[in-house]
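Minutes, project huddle
Topic: does the predicted pose make sense with flavin mononucleotide bound?
PN asked that the exact inputs be recorded in the minutes so nobody has to dig through chat later. Recorded below.
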Amino acid sequence: MIYFTAGESHGPELTGIIEGFPAGLRLSIDDLNQKLSDRQKGYGRGYRQKIEHDQVRISSGVRHGVTLGSPITLKIANIDHKHWGEIMDPLNPPDPEINLREVKYPRPGHADLVGGMKYGHRDLRNVLERSSARETAMRVAIGAVCAQLLSQLDIQLAGYVRQIGTIDADTDQLLMPEQIEQEIRQNDLRIVNQDKVEAIHEYIDQTKKAGNTLGGVIRVVAENVPAGLGSYTSWNEKLDAKIAAAVIGINAMKGVTFGDGFDLAAKPGSEVMDPIYWEADQGWFRSSNHLGGFEGGMTNGMPLVINVAMKPIPTLYKPLHSVSIDTKEENKASIERSDVTAIVPASLVIESVVAIELAKAVLDTFDSSNMERLKRQYRAYCDELKNY
Ligand SMILES: Cc1cc2nc3c(=O)[nH]c(=O)nc-3n(C[C@H](O)[C@H](O)[C@H](O)COP(=O)(O)O)c2cc1C
Ligand SMILES: C=C(O[C@@H]1CC(C(=O)O)=C[C@@H](OP(=O)(O)O)[C@H]1O)C(=O)O
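Predicted holo structure (tokens), as shared on screen:
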């Protein structure tokens, strides 16, 4: 399976194409739209989310609600485009009198300056329109399609926010996807610790008032993942590496670890490796999960535990020093309407790209033409592993 996304933030729409997806999966469009709506929520988001009402439209690869095995095309309209029609018109040159809202003072931490240098743009809007995380709406839609495939195999996953700025909002216990879903539905921060909600709201409000922004830490947990997805045989077949690349491919993600991550480095091996057990009813399992479900680039049957660091939002309402790309005049960086923190939607975006990589690994391992055949092969494989 491969996928592409296209579309500018204030252009007419986002497009996604998935190729190599099996025939015979009944898609729930309500579920896709629910995930898109969830991605728009979260305390600390900017005004743009009041304008958009993300809904997916499917124009190929699905008939009467069931996938056909042919390329699936997904579309999400940018409602805000109506305010940017002439500025973002894909074809017609603009009226010379209109304000094109050109961007000349690159924002530190955004793609503006280097994107302009590399592609030779003299209006940095040509960079920011595509480097914007607006595109992540489409990755969430594609991830929701993949999560529906995984759910047919009883593989579940969920993401939540562990930390916002300096505030730790995690619990000591490792929660499984169903518990995470239950807990995060109770607040607008996708955190599992309800006691921290008030303090975090206040913290985000204060940060906004100060013209500043926040990042944080996210965790995604996947359960019921069979052993043997990915491969140790070549570096580019390792599934933990593919997941790491997909996660860092999301705007503003700066670190990814598996299991106990950096904490593993200082410990002796005896406290890190997960002891091996076998029992007739359960098959193979481990008594701990410090390695987060991966050995040799392969899933080992334990839950996958993926932790991600997101940097603070680069656009600052109290901007940092910058220089005009035309006059070289020194001034403050440009300000574009912006989020104070996007850690909440980011947790769903990360969950989505992990779902995509897991679905790709499943389709690389088993029949990828037909869903029923895939399920039969998958069940036989799981039974075989249990008695290995
Ligand atoms: C869901 C989401 C929303 C974001 N919203 C904003 C925003 O409103 N303003 C902004 O400057 N950056 C925002 N970002 C981050 C930038 O898109 C990102 O930092 C920028 O494209 C540079 O890429 P890099 O941080 O990966 O180097 C957001 C990121 C995510 C995941
Ligand atoms: C549009 C979305 O996020 C955008 C991501 C973003 C950025 O620079 O990454 C900048 C802002 O864009 P705008 O200036 O249009 O408000 C965010 O709103 C979205 O998530 O749907």
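Observations noted during the meeting:
- The mean pLDDT is 97.
- The first strand starts at residue 2 and ends at 6.
No decisions taken; revisit at the next huddle.
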